[in-house]
Amino acid sequence: MNDPKYLRVPTIFEAFQKAGGKVAVLTAKDKLRRLLGHGLSFGDGSAVCFSSEHADKCTMEDNGITDVPAMVGMDVPDVYSAELSEFVFAAGVKLLKSMQPDLLYLSTTDYIQHKFAPGTDGANAFYAMIDRYLGEIDAAGATFVFTADHGMSAKHTVAEEPDILYLQELLDGWYGEGKTRVILPITDPYVVHHGALGSFATVYLEEGIDAGALIERLRLQDLIEVVYSREEGCRVFELPEDRVGDIIVVSRDSKVLGTAAARHDLSGLKEPLRSHGGISEQRVPVIVNRRMSEVPEGLRNFDAFFIGCNNVVLKQEAAA
Ligand SMILES: [Zn+2]
């Protein structure tokens, strides 16, 4: 999603502000800032919302803050960099002390995780940076809930080549061109580090194509983990049916789905491909810097807000 017009409900941030809370929402990419900042009102100092990508373009009217690079003490980073995420943490720590928001939301990018496997120097340096800032957030007295929107896996062969099934080519071969349309949700304007290759695809079918027969045929493909009808897949993955194609296809652990070879620019892939979208990337950590009063069953990443507001034992209570 890249436009607020697709939002169906107001955000938690808007509700917090309307209830009298102070909120600060910081993202790495501006596309997400537009969604998360939707409905916030700026000007009375109770909301700040900006992206590190456009940190030098902030106005009081649209972001509730100006001169962000000077506040942070960093230049606006390149969109493909570890610093794009570091900027978010650095700005968050500054705001925690100056603005003292009731709710602070920090969102980074997964650029580094796409490029560097766990345990490599690039990955270690990134997590050391995050650890330093989490330490500062903790020292400032804030409760934090730290989680991810997906995992990340190696998606290549032993020869370190991406292991790709070009689904549109396959379907064009079976049905002819223009009969099916493969959508890869990983595709956004920034695809250099993964070539728009992930493990999830949804496919729209022209009328007359038998979805059931296609599902059976795809299930026989070696690289594919699951194929579902829209209805079944949306139930399994909790997706909205009106925003998903006729079928859902997920590739196996180390495999990825593409549309057609000619439509993927892999020239920017300098490291062996790492990506997400598969069943193998569903489990993510949820880390809280407080004792929890109870751990809810079937915890999900979006429960972070609920946990932070309702499930932590504050230091004062713990001492009492
Ligand atoms: Zn990604």
Notable features of this structure?
binds zinc ion; four-stranded antiparallel β-sheet; 320 residues; 12 helices
Structure characterization notes:
- By secondary structure, this protein is of the alpha/beta class.
- Helices cover 32% and strands 17% of the residues.
- The protein is built from 12 helices and 15 strands.
- A 4-stranded antiparallel β-sheet has the order 7-8-10-9.
- α2 (30-36) links the parallel β1 and β2.
- α5 packs parallel to α7 (121-139).
- It is globular.
- The N and C termini lie far apart (46 Å).
- The mean pLDDT is 94.
- The structure holds zinc ion.
- Residues 110, 114, 276 line the site of zinc ion.
Order of helices and strands: HEHEHHHEHHEEEHEEHEHEEEEEHEH
Rg over alpha carbons: 21 Å
Main sheet overview: 4 strands, antiparallel
What is the SS-derived class? alpha/beta
Bound molecules: zinc ion
Proportion of β residues?
A: 15-25%
Report the uncertain regions: none
Q: Could you give the count of β-strands? A: 15
Number of helices in the DSSP assignment:
12
Strand order of the largest sheet: 7-8-10-9
Q: Assign a percent range to the helix content.
A: 25-40%
Q: What coarse outline follows from CA principal-axis ratios? A: globular
How far the N terminus sits from the C terminus, by CA atoms, comes to 46 Å
Mean pLDDT across all amino acids: 94
